[in-house]
Design goal:
The protein has four helices and seven strands. By secondary structure, the chain is of the alpha+beta class. It has a single domain (26-154), classed as Nuclear Transport Factor 2, Chain: A (Roll). Strands 1, 2, 3, 4, 5, 6 and 7 form a seven-stranded mixed sheet that branches. The radius of gyration is 23 Å and the shape is globular. The termini are far apart.
């Protein structure tokens, strides 16, 4: 038994040293998923208020934005310009329904469905619906959108029937 103690101590020392060398990985669980769902609700509220500053604040500075039928945009400023153009088309009444949220460490994904109306000052009012995907990154304890992608379920903009 006396000759076993040095071996046991050596194993314990090696195990402790390897555990100390690892970086602490952030856990991802129900609480983080709820934060992301709340951030998505904040996004929809900011969109419907046409609050470009609040929308931009939800994106990381290196965010990649991939809208349908349009080139990829990178960074908050170009993303804000996209939303500004969308608002000029009368975009309103955005609804986002988060369906799946998962992640590992500082990265998370969220997928869901959306609906959106366009009510321009002139021309037909249209609606759209489809699916979206956000990739979130936790930076300095704040979940920010790193990638955005969505696509419509409809073949083209569908006119909204006039209210009688």
């Amino acid at each position: 038994m006396r000759t076993l103690w040095p071996v046991i101590l050596l194993v314990l020392a090696a195990t402790s040293a390897s555990a100390c060398g690892r970086t602490q990985e952030m856990a991802f669980g129900t609480a983080e998923a709820q934060v992301i769902r709340q951030r998505t609700a904040d996004f929809a509220a900011a969109f419907n208020a046409k609050a470009l500053d609040k929308i931009s604040a939800l994106y990381s500075g290196e965010s990649v934005f991939m809208p349908p039928n349009s080139p990829t945009r990178r960074g908050r400023e170009t993303i804000a310009e996209f939303y500004k153009g969308l608002f000029a088309e009368g975009a309103t009444e955005l609804r986002l329904e988060s369906q799946n949220v998962g992640g590992h460490g500082p990265l998370a994904y969220e997928s869901g469905t959306y609906s959106l109306n366009r009510r321009p000052a002139s021309g037909p009012h249209t609606r759209d619906r489809g699916k979206y995907m956000f990739i979130w990154r936790n930076t300095n304890n704040q979940w920010l959108i790193e990638y955005t992608m969505w696509s419509s379920d409809l073949p083209e903009r569908v006119d909204i029937a006039p209210v009688k």
